[in-house]
Amino acid sequence: MKNKKSNFSEWYSEVIQEAELADIRYNVKGFLAHMPWSVRTMKNMYCIVERELEKKGHEPAWFPALIPESYFKKEAEHAEGFSADVFWVTEGGSDNTKFSERLALRPTSETAMYSMFSLWIRTWRDLPYKIYQSCQVWRFEGKSTRPFIRGREFYWTEAHDVFETKEEAEKQVEEDRDTTCNVLKEFAIPFIFFKRPEHDKFKGAVSTYAADSIMPDGKIIQLPSTHFLGQNFSKAFNIKFVDKKGDEKYAWQTCYGPAVWRIFGTLVAIHGDDKGLILPPSIAPLVAVIIPIYFKGSDEKVMEKANAIKKLLESRCISAKVDDRAEHTPGWKYNYWELKGVPIRIEVGPKDIEKKQLVLVRRDTGEKAAIKESELVEKITKFSEEIQSNLAKRAEKFFKEHISEANDMAQLKKILEEQGGLVKVEWCGSEECADYIKAETVGGDIRGTPLGKEEKPKGNCIWCGNKAEQAVYVGKAY
Amino acid sequence: MKNKKSNFSEWYSEVIQEAELADIRYNVKGFLAHMPWSVRTMKNMYCIVERELEKKGHEPAWFPALIPESYFKKEAEHAEGFSADVFWVTEGGSDNTKFSERLALRPTSETAMYSMFSLWIRTWRDLPYKIYQSCQVWRFEGKSTRPFIRGREFYWTEAHDVFETKEEAEKQVEEDRDTTCNVLKEFAIPFIFFKRPEHDKFKGAVSTYAADSIMPDGKIIQLPSTHFLGQNFSKAFNIKFVDKKGDEKYAWQTCYGPAVWRIFGTLVAIHGDDKGLILPPSIAPLVAVIIPIYFKGSDEKVMEKANAIKKLLESRCISAKVDDRAEHTPGWKYNYWELKGVPIRIEVGPKDIEKKQLVLVRRDTGEKAAIKESELVEKITKFSEEIQSNLAKRAEKFFKEHISEANDMAQLKKILEEQGGLVKVEWCGSEECADYIKAETVGGDIRGTPLGKEEKPKGNCIWCGNKAEQAVYVGKAY
Predict the structure, then answer these.
(1) Domain boundaries, chain B
(2) CA distance linking residue A81 with residue A67, whole number of Å
């Protein structure tokens, strides 16, 4: 295994391959074959995301993957912003009939959904209207692709909400921040929730907000984003309602897009170490793996005990598996499951049975503990909680160490070059200065101001020297 | 609501629309916008299907939605059989770059998956290899589409299994029948599991097996099907393994495709009545809906009780909802939730509170029962079980009444015309006779012989009069 710290990029590719998360050899650029270990983890992640959205009044829906070009083009700015990203379906059937209208493979579903919202929403009684769908989207990415970070096909959830008033829609942005917080906490991922600058908005939105985390190489990764759409789409798609007074009004909208696929890539990167993956117990497909340690003549007793432990754990809703492969040594199995990131290993040998004890090993710290067999469930629960909070603590520490401040361009450049992360600077607000800053730092983007924690600027723009309008954070992003 | 018995087709369309299951007005032929009530039900159905597959050793995977034309064409018969069904992605990006190779929107995933299997499977230790994915597929259907029955986009699960020996693969077909049985039982859908005749196989398969049920109009609907692929695909995709003796061998394969989307349509059709949907409690998004009955001055007490009941039920994992909409009368709400098919209604009024009782109403029979409040959980559980078994019993009765036997063509034609269903006849096995039978009966297909219950033919082919080789069932299918 490559060294994560000194060689993050290669370490990441290696862990994807060695832990059997995905195979990049599928013969379409930017498309992955996803293997069971990552899919089982992402399915657990989806449960968390969907539970949180449903708790907040969203209901699930499924919309078509294909969008007629005419729907797609209804909101001009949106269509322009996404046009470079679209895969087009142009023909089908045995005689390869060319379609009279091209069909877009959805890069996002606003235009598919909102064409129906205009039929479904009639009066204030239908509002707020909150739905979500978990699905794949496809984007014809020009940038180089990387598994679970940037792909031409990825897995996400998109929530789309419709309101009577601007205020309610603006409140939804805060609710989405809260959802992001609850969800990323389960995955032990630290982040700042930014209001993006004007020039970096979602195409078609009035304003855009997004969670940024920091990868081990100091680069920024955008996680869930949420958009206040104002009435831009409701006007383009004719989403109107009759209000309590009987007047017809255009609705106010938001959309929110947590991408489980990318969050998975982020947690692989953030929590892993030189032995491989480390999965938070909250989403690991297995919380514990049981390794029977054989010696001649003791096989049967050991296997019996291992299976009994598995049964006991499962009866308490703790997922567990016995690795009973005869062709491998216990040592080989330790490595195998460490690579896969299973939070806790349970070792059972004949001596342990005699002493009515078991050996537990934590994946995050490597710590070993001999425990009484009778305390197993209690200890596994305790260890799980400790691992979960240790991963969060570690990640938080790294994150905080990579938040800094710069007073001039030289300092900003130096920090971005040497350690990356998010660097606070003051900025006049002009896109021109943002472009110069990006060019000068070779990729430093203005990520925005933290929502709800805006800081007043005290001085001048780090680039032009004019009066600063905002204190913003700069980072080089994936 | 239309009368289901006399006007099934219109009744079906109406229930899809009125119960807000899906909207057919999305502007691409054969594509639906799926609304929350159907999606919540289908998500519950997916849990049942996936749990059953995992119990039998399958692990989840996700494969790309796009398949390069060259992969798609590797197995000649398969490619030919599906070529009429394919939507092609031919261009993308801002300058609409034409791709050098067309990409198929997957109509099914054999060719996507098996190109990877050839990289992943090395030795007998990797076998059996059993995975599944739940996904959408797209087929450029020529036939007329109908929601949840035939569409150009639909939702299914596909399981793909690889084995060392022919015998193991053949055994898998029986396991798939068992899976079908367990799954359809949860949905209270009766069926016969047929081995299809040679001329009606899945393209690329050695043999095909499928569950057939009977719709209220007497037409046959194909539900999960499973295919013994032999070595056809392993040879085309080079899926080889080294066996225990060290020899390199081609693998044996099967695939299995339960389509939740179509099973949902079937259960809507089979269980519903002239008041709307009837959902089996095993998969209903809500098992019970609580209707508070207000009179002046009693609102608060009634609402409090209604909410307390909801809490109690949820604490026992029984999904429940209070319909507290002030703008509608209790009577309006009864109709609304009957249309949606919620299995049990709970009525709470001030008199009930005084008497410490509740009124329960069963959706399937309309039966009303005043019960002691203290017995609520127990009674709901009992009613759920009774509804589940009553739906199964009703469906089974209809199914059996539509299984018959014909000794000559006149009788076969008469039965198919008058009541439809499955009609047992004797057949020589030639495709020519099958074609004549189909033409003469205006659509009667030979569905095959029941797997594991083959009956010896006693006489002659119903068409040509030569010696019969098989006792088969004929029906007109969707």
Answers:
(1) 8-271, 288-383, 403-476
(2) 16
